Amino acid sequence: MSKPETKFIIVRAATKYFSKYGFYKTTMDEIAKHIHKAKGVLYYHFNSKEELFNEVLKQELEKVKIELSKVVIEPCDSLSMLKNYIFKRLDLLYKSVNYHETLKADFFEKYHFVEEVREDFAKFDKEKVHFIISRGQKEGTLNISDINSTVNIVLMVLNSIEIPLFLQDKYSEYIDAGEELADLIIKGLKS
User: What is the pTM of this model?
Assistant: First the structure.
């Protein structure tokens, strides 16, 4: 088996275990047993469990970024695009269980080893929302005096609802109200 194939198998198994048991309850031994390899094979590809989790999170958020990128190239007006982005973002992050693990860590113990991956996603998120709002400004549907501050506020609102929706498992209870939230944000930004 080639080096990239082995690494792929390790990451796939780790994704399954981290998603099911969380970072602390998953061991490298369990992952190694699951793929019928010696634990040393895991350490050949990843220096630590933290590095492996980082890779799992990176791949999970890369999938989210790919799907969100599709939203900003759809042929629609900027207000519809922003609404679609908000819904898609919530749905994708709800399904990103390992991302939830990093949200939990923010309260108890920082996972410093995932900061770079989370910062990369935050930068991506900011760029996409900036693009949508700037486009709305150019279309004349949005009247924003400070686009950067507006982007930051929109993202603060979206980030602040992640804890109750994802960690307190209220997503299914409140997802219908998500449309009202998106409408509220859009009405506040409209010209």
Answer: 0.89
Per-residue pLDDT reduced to its tens digit, 12-40? 999 999 999 989 899 999 999 999 999 99
- SS3 (DSSP) at 190: strand
Quickly tell me which residue has 């486009």 as its tokens: 135
Coil vs helix vs strand at 181: helix
Q: Long-range contacts made by residues 62-70, C-beta under 8 angstroms, separation at least 24?
A: 63/92, 64/89, 64/92, 64/93, 64/96, 64/99, 64/121, 65/121, 65/124, 67/92, 68/92, 68/124, 68/125, 68/128, 69/128
Cα–Cα distance for residue pair 103/167, rounded to 1 Å: 8
Q: For residue range 107-121, what is the model confidence (pLDDT) as tens digits? A: 556 678 888 999 999
